């Protein structure tokens, strides 16, 4: 608890935190001081001078900027005196010297701080009659952002954001005085993963985004709060719709999660929601083997008959389910219940070959939350490149490191956080276990790192650095880190609602509510609710693919999943799908896997359904319907209920509300949650649901770090990038262009040794598959490493084997 | 890849070594880069960015703020005429017009033959000897329009190298601010400021050959 001081604002005494900025203290207590450059999530600069107030001091009453004035005890402040009004009017008159006042044709008009504050605090009339500045307009500063320089009031919000917050300062003030303008360097576009935030925080219409420019007027937009579905961070967003179409997403300042920031993939993925490629009618494979549109009753009948005949002939155990991580908790719960009670199988998985033990992901203790980063002395990241996989978590770690937390990054390649890392350790894939042993034993080479991580509180961010890494390594790392002083763990997986799906028991190893499927009492409790529960062993996604390929499994139900594109051995998944006797897909797009199904159902997607999701902290947040879906698409849970009905049962999914109420009854970890709380109450920022005493927590057993390192002359590092070739990038015109080309990266020394020129062509070969790609140089790799970005045209066929061979083509 | 001459590359490392933060070295490094390329080219800014760990646009932000970082090629002789208050009151504008007329180069530009660049500048600290002119940052005080014309003709005819302020003062100057004491200038060899012994870049001259 920080010290409290008393200040007087406009005659009203206020008790506020010592050292807080005056503008913030006043705003929190109901006095709004106008501002342009100050942003609550960035450092103050006092550039625009709009927040002038009078402060009484020993030298008399002084005009001062309230954005960089910390409060002190006994401070007396006037925000509405004649002097203040005159000063603010003067500042606005100056700010408007060059501003074009083209509000009627400006995207910002209607939600523009300059427009609003000119009305509320401005002089009403300008004495300036001179010609205004003119610039070429608009100029594209990146693939997504356009700049109209004559509108800019030089508040530096965008340049400070890119420097301070996102760490890619590619825009900056150029020139001086009347010629000052924000610009990029020639041939170096503002290629930031976070560029959309500058558009959102621009206090005028100088920065606009291509996907939104000239598409709507702000007052025509309906605004619905929801949660971004694109990774497991769970950023709070506002969905803006007009005439039943999603127009844009804006970040919402959620104190526990995203602080108002979004990554560009999340922000601009709304285009894929509106894609014309969305599935809008059921499809059935006809006699000639083609998928053709069908009516709902026909498709239902075909799916129910197909599944029922397999269950009858081979048992429920011969059918498997993949998916659940892309939708809401309610859909995932319905999927799990459908697979386990109606089909009668334990072969179901929401992770697609991500490899991490579900117990590790949702059951690691002590489990940390994102806000722990801000109080941590030491942050250890041994896991994915956060900038690529969990972008807004990257911003939070970056901020914590900037505030003084020691950051240790261990990864086979450069990561976005390297410039803020106190220590960065690069290793060759496969040699992680040896590195961990060195760290544990305090090897002299790592003595400094070892000493640094001993200072608590420690936050351990642990996940797989890439798809070729032994998943048990992450567990071993976690087992080591949890013993450090005041340590908390955040196990990392990127897939959007994977934590929610696992909490809903969509895993062979879990039952709803973070209960182990090996727990007898957990199973007994669930049987009471569900009536039945299969007892057999369940396969995970890779096991399911193997089972389908070798004929042990006959049928498959996919819900919001695309194993062909998404598992590390996509070609094997494709083979498995072609061998399966009967496949049902419930999806929003006809993706590569759904295209191999016998019956495809069109599902409602994000912004089209109500529900809850759970992020990587275990935080439950609300997703909200803001627009209708395309054509005849239906909610996935309702499709499953209908299927269950035709197969002679029911999963009780009469509405999403009923499902949620069942979840809070059945899932111990979700007890006591209500939608009202999540939407209007204390849960607006989401609620982290811990297990209560008396519940049956799953026991995450740490593995012995005696893992054997894999020795390979050339080792493959395969990791996901932000703009991979997934449906939300492929079907969004703006993001589609940002998907990287298929590449393999080598250390220049290795390339020289192997005689491969920069830009040369090679065949990358592993035991699981091969791909022909161009070579790029990456000196940040450990020698002997080949880095192939996953799912950029190729990569998904190379599998998860560490050892790799290169065949030079040219 | 930085392809500076050996001397300049060493100077750059020396400069970097004298600051606890690498980005603090941006300004002196920009002079080294300017000496290397003759002006602050895009490549010069990329080089400095590489040396300081900044992005090129951050370097360009600094380079474009200060007018002494020339971002276009400069003539052999950069004639800077002061038009701040003291010089303005004592005829600095007339001196500027005389220089423009004699060289045929309007202020802010470089002549087509590359001999002269002409600019008007803000106060160059010679108010006591106004009006003042600099050629390649070497100072001449008490310049009349007529003397300025002679100065340009002399530069054109004799092509002095190095260029010494004291010499020009004796030939074309008038009233000086005060007694300067012993001159420490080693003279200018090009339109890149040479700080001599007071250089933040050490004692070495950074100007090009």
Fold blueprint:
The complex is a heterodimer of chains A (810) and B (209).
Chain A: E1 4-9, E2 12-17, H1 22-28, E3 52-57, E4 60-65, E5 76-78, H2 82-95, H3 113-121, E6 139-140, E7 145-147, H4 157-165, E8 171-174, E9 181-184, H5 195-201, E10 207-209, E11 222-227, E12 236-242, E13 245-251, H6 264-268, H7 270-273, E14 283-285, E15 291-293, H8 296-314, E16 319-323, H9 329-343, E17 348-349, H10 358-363, H11 372-375, E18 378-382, H12 386-389, H13 391-402, E19 406-410, E20 423-425, H14 432-441, H15 447-452, E21 458-463, H16 471-481, E22 488-492, H17 498-503, E23 510-511, E24 515-516, H18 520-530, H19 541-550, E25 555-559, H20 563-566, H21 570-579, E26 582-587, E27 599-602, E28 611-614, E29 619-623, H22 636-646, H23 656-666, H24 675-680, E30 687-688, E31 715-720, H25 727-730, H26 733-736, E32 743-746, H27 748-754, E33 761-765, E34 770-777, E35 785-790, E36 805-808
Parallel strand pairs in A: 1-5, 16-17, 16-25, 18-19, 18-21, 19-20, 21-22, 25-26, 26-27, 31-35, 32-34
Antiparallel strand pairs in A: 1-2, 3-4, 3-5, 6-7, 7-10, 8-9, 11-12, 12-13, 14-15, 14-27, 23-24, 28-29, 29-30, 32-35, 33-34, 33-36
Helix pairs in contact in A: 4-5, 8-22, 9-22, 9-23, 14-16, 19-21
Chain B: H1 6-17, H2 26-37, H3 42-52, H4 56-65, E1 77-82, H5 85-89, H6 92-103, E2 109-110, E3 116-121, E4 133-135, E5 138-140, H7 145-158, H8 165-172
Parallel strand pairs in B: 1-3
Antiparallel strand pairs in B: 1-4, 2-3, 4-5
């Amino acid at each position: 608890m920080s010290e409290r001081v008393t200040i007087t604002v406009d005659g009203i005494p206020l008790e506020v935190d010592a050292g807080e900025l005056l503008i913030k203290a006043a705003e929190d207590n109901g006095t709004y001081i106008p501002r342009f450059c100050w942003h609550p999530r960035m450092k103050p600069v006092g550039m625009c001078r709009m927040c002038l107030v009078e402060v009484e001091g020993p030298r008399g009453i002084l005009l001062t900027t309230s954005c960089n004035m910390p409060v002190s005890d006994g401070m007396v402040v006037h925000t509405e005196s004649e002097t203040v009004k005159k000063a603010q009017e003067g500042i606005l008159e100056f700010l408007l010297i060059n501003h074009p006042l083209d509000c009627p044709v400006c995207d910002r008009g209607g939600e523009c701080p300059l427009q609003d504050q000119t009305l509320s605090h401005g002089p009403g009339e300008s004495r300036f009659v001179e010609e205004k500045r003119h610039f070429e307009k608009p100029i594209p500063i990146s693939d997504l952002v356009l700049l109209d320089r004559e509108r800019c009031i030089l508040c530096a919000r965008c340049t400070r954001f890119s420097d301070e917050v996102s760490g890619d300062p590619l825009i900056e003030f150029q020139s001086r005085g009347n010629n000052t303008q924000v610009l990029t360097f020639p041939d170096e576009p503002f290629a930031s993963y976070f560029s959309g935030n500058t558009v959102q925080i621009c206090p005028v219409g100088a920065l606009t985004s291509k996907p939104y420019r000239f598409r709507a007027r702000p007052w025509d937009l309906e605004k619905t709060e929801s949660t971004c579905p694109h990774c497991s961070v769970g950023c709070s967003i506002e969905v803006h719709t007009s005439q039943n179409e999603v127009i844009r997403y804006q970040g919402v300042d959620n104190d526990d999660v995203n602080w108002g920031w979004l990554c560009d993939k999340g922000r601009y993925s709304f285009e894929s929601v509106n894609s014309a490629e969305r599935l809008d009618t059921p499809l059935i494979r006809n006699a000639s083997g083609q998928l053709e549109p069908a009516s709902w009753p026909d498709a239902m009948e075909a799916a129910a008959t197909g599944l029922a005949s397999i269950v009858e002939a081979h048992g429920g155990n011969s059918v498997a389910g993949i998916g659940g991580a892309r939708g809401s908790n309610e859909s995932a719960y319905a999927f799990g219940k459908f697979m386990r009670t109606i089909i009668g199988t334990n072969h179901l998985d929401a992770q697609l070959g991500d490899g991490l033990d579900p117990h590790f992901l949702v059951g690691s203790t002590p489990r940390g939350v994102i806000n722990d980063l801000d109080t941590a002395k030491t942050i250890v990241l041994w896991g994915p490149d956060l900038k690529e996989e969990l972008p807004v978590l990257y911003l939070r770690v970056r901020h914590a490191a900037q505030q003084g937390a020691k950051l240790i990054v261990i990864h086979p390649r450069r990561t976005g956080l390297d410039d803020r890392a106190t220590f960065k350790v690069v290793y060759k894939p496969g040699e992680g276990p040896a590195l961990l042993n060195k760290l544990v034993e305090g090897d002299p080479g790592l003595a400094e790192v070892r000493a640094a991580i001993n200072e608590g509180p420690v936050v351990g961010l642990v996940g797989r650095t890439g798809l070729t890494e032994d998943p048990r390594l992450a567990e071993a790392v976690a087992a080591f880190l949890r013993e450090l002083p005041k340590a908390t763990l955040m196990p990392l997986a990127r897939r959007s609602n994977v934590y929610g799906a696992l909490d809903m028991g969509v895993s062979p190893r879990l039952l709803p509510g973070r209960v182990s499927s090996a727990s007898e009492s957990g199973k007994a409790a669930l049987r009471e609710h569900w009536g039945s529960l299969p007892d057999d062993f369940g396969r995970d996604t890779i096991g399911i693919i193997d089972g389908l390929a070798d004929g042990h499994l006959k049928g498959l139900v996919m819900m919001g999943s695309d194993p062909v594109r998404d598992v590390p051995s996509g070609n094997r998944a494709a083979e498995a799908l072609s061998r399966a006797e009967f496949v049902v897909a419930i999806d929003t797009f006809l993706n590569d896997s759904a295209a191999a199904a016998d019956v495809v159902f069109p599902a409602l997607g994000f912004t089209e359904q109500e529900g809850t999701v759970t992020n990587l902290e275990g935080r439950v947040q609300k997703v909200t319907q803001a627009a209708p879906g395309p054509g005849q698409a239906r909610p996935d849970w309702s499709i499953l209920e209908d299927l269950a009905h035709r197969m002679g049962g029911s999963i009780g999914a009469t509405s999403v509300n009923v499902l949620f109420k069942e979840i809070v009854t059945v899932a111990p970890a979700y007890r006591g949650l209500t939608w009202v709380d999540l939407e209007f109450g204390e849960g607006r920022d989401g609620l982290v649901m811990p297990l209560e005493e008396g519940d049956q927590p799953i026991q995450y057993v740490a593995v012995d770090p005696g893992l054997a390192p894999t020795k390979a002359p050339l080792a493959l590092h395969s990791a996901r990038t932000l703009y991979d070739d997934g449906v939300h990038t492929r079907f969004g015109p703006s993001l589609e262009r940002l998907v990287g080309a298929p590449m393999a990266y080598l250390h220049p020394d290795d390339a020289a040794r192997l005689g491969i020129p920069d830009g040369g062509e090679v065949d990358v070969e592993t035991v699981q598959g091969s791909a022909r790609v161009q070579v790029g140089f990456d000196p940040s790799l450990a020698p002997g490493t080949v880095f192939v970005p996953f799912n950029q045209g190729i990569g998904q066929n190379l599998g998860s084997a560490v050892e790799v061979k290169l065949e030079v083509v040219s | 890849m930085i392809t500076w001459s050996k001397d300049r590359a060493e100077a750059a490392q020396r400069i970097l070594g004298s600051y606890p933060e690498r980005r603090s070295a941006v300004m002196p490094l920009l002079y080294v880069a300017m000496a290397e390329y003759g002006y602050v080219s895009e490549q010069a800014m990329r080089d400095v960015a590489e040396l300081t760990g900044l992005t090129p646009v951050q370097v360009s932000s600094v380079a474009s703020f200060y007018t002494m970082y020339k971002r276009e090629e400069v003539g052999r002789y950069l004639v800077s005429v002061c038009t701040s208050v003291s010089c303005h009151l004592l005829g600095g504008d007339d001196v500027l017009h005389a220089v423009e007329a004699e060289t045929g180069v309007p202020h802010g530009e470089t002549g087509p033959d590359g001999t002269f660049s002409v600019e008007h500048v803000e106060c160059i600290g010679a108010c006591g000897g106004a009006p003042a002119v600099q050629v390649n940052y070497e100072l001449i005080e008490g310049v009349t329009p007529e003397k300025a014309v002679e100065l340009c003709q002399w530069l054109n005819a004799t092509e002095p190298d190095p260029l010494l302020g004291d010499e020009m003062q004796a030939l074309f100057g008038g009233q000086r601010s005060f007694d300067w004491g012993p001159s420490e200038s080693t003279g200018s060899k090009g339109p890149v400021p040479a700080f001599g012994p007071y250089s933040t870049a050490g004692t070495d001259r950074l100007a090009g050959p």
